[in-house]
Each structure stands twice: as C-alpha cells, then as structure tokens.
Amino acid sequence: MDCDKIGKLLYDLRKEKNMTQKQLADLMNISDKTISKWERGLGCPDVSLLPELSQILGVNIEDILAGKLDLNEAMGGNMKNLKFFVCPQCNNLLTATGDANISCCGKKLEALSAAKANESHVLTIEPVEDELYVSAAHEMKKEHYISFVAYVTGDRAVIVKQYPEWNMQFRFHKSGHGKLYFHCSNHGLFYQLI
C-alpha cells in the first residue's frame, strides 16, 4: 500500500463531498488528527475502518487501497456496447455501457458473454402490425427458465424481465435492426439478430 497515494485520494474524495476533516472524523468516531495523518501520507487507514470509509466517500475499498480511481473515458453511449451482469445468488440483472466494477450479494460480477442462439435456445419472433411478438417453447420452471429478454439497438434497450411459471411471450415496438438478447438461468446469455 502506498500511503501517499491513498492519502491524496482520500483528500480529493473528502473535498468532493465538501467535508472537513472534522466532519469525516466525526462520522467515523475517530480523531480529525487521524484523517490529517492519512491525507499527509503518514499512515494508512486501519483495515477495520475501510468499509465505513468506503461507504462515506462512495468508492470501493479496492480503489482506496489502490490509491486511485480508474475512470472510464467518455463514450458516445452506444447501446450496442451494453453489457449484462446477472447475480448467481439472487438473479439480479444489472447493465453497463462501459467498463464497470459491479457486485451483488457481496460478490464481484463478470459481464456475461453472449453466444449465438441454437436450436434448444431460440426465440420465435413474429411481426404483428408495427410490433414484434416474441415467444419461446423454453421451459419456465424455477430450476430452468429465461430470466430476461432485451431488444438492443444503437440508441436504446428495451428489457423485459421474465419469471418462472410465466408463459414466455410478450410484444414490443420494433425500432430498426438490432439484437435480441435473452438469458437462460442454466445456460447463460444468447442473442439473435433482428
């Protein structure tokens, strides 16, 4: 650990929050002299204080220990770069259009890698007026089901959450060419071109 880098980061983060050393120290029930010592690089926070410090300053513990924040470069926001994250514990669905450190249920999540749909994992897509009707013969039981379907184009994403025991069918308004992503709880993420 580089106490100088950590101290500089803590100083910058505290200033971003418009907090004095005393205000931060009071929130943590420690001395403002301790905060001053950290910010001058004369020591580092004790491991037991890192979770609280992380929460107050709004950054990950790993970033504090690294002494820097890895910022993404500004992107045009192209939705075709959309990444999907699904928590294996609670099936929470999270998305990001750039690099992100995402965690759920206390574990870091990795972006899912999409495979092209095969005959056992394929959605039926039928045009109905100006909409597309999507359905699947895929089983929808608690132990094996499609958890979400996402229609992604260059400027938008429409996500439809699915649940066990539901019929896998819905409609959405078609708005150009794109990809239809869907997640099987047992076999991962798939895609079909529209």
TrEMBL record:
**Entry EC no(s):** 1.15.1.2
Q: Provide the HTH cro/C1-type domain boundaries.
A: 10-64
Listed Gene3D superfamilies: lambda repressor-like DNA-binding domains, SOR catalytic domain
Q: Which Pfam families does this UniProt record tie to the protein?
A: HTH_3
- Keyword presence, Oxidoreductase: yes
Molecular function per GO: superoxide reductase activity
Name the source's superkingdom. Answer: Bacteria
List UniProt keywords, sorted A-Z: DNA-binding, Oxidoreductase
Q: Which InterPro entries does this entry report, sorted A to Z? A: Cro/C1-type_HTH, Desulfoferrodoxin_Fe-bd_dom_sf, Lambda_DNA-bd_dom_sf
Q: Which PROSITE patterns match?
A: HTH_CROC1 (PS50943)
What the entry lists under PANTHER family is as follows: HTH-TYPE TRANSCRIPTIONAL REGULATOR XRE, TRACRIPTIONAL REGULATORY PROTEIN-RELATED-RELATED
Protein's recorded name: Desulfoferrodoxin
- The organism is Sporomusa sphaeroides DSM 2875
